[in-house]
Design a protein that fits this description.
This protein has helices at about 10-15, 20-25, 40-50, 60-65, 80-90, 100-105, 120-130, and strands at about 1-10, 30-40, 70-75, 115. A 4-stranded antiparallel sheet has the order 2-3-1-4. The chain is globular, with a radius of gyration of 14 Å. Helices cover about 40% and strands about 20% of the residues. The chain has 7 helices and 4 strands, in the order βααβααβααβα. By secondary structure, the chain is of the alpha+beta class. The two termini are about 15 Å apart. It has a single domain (about 1-135), classed as Nucleoside diphosphate kinase-like domain (Alpha-Beta Plaits), CATH 3.30.70.141.
Length: about 140
């Protein structure tokens, strides 16, 4: 089986949408294999978003993801599970996300778009190691 990382971001937890988001992934046939509600420290957030460190929006990403608890999860499924999760998430900007996707149905602004999902198999492996090293 193939694994990927999913984070229900602070806005998703604050709005009480974690259950809805996880249910959508499970209804697709993916299996939840690890989950932890936690408040990320700055160092972990910076490590997670390291590929964006030189971008102007980096500080905003770190500030947002550390503002309140997130639900960090690992989902398992068939080959390219990360692609399945990304399709269910919808595009980064909820204004462009298709109806039926998590962001298309539940999010309204790009800066608070509810969910993170690994964007490749390599990213999934790296991100799982950050948050769940015992699964790596």
């Amino acid at each position: 089986m193939n694994r990927t990382l999913v984070i229900v971001k602070p806005d998703g937890v604050e709005r009480g949408l974690a259950g809805e988001i996880l249910a959508r992934l499970e209804r697709k046939g993916l299996s939840l294999v690890a989950a932890e509600l936690r408040r990320l420290d700055r160092a972990t957030a910076e490590r997670h978003y390291a590929e964006h460190a030189e971008r102007p929006f980096f500080e905003g990403l770190v500030t947002f993801i550390t503002r309140s608890p997130v639900l960090v999860c690992v989902f398992e499924g068939p080959a390219d599970t990360w692609r399945i999760v990304r399709a269910l998430m919808g595009t980064t900007n909820p204004a462009d996300a298709a109806p039926g996707t998590i962001r298309g149905d539940l999010a309204t602004v790009m800066s608070e778009n509810l969910i993170h999902g690994s964007d490749s198999a390599e990213s999934a492996a790296r991100e799982i190691e950050i948050f769940f090293p015992h699964l790596a």
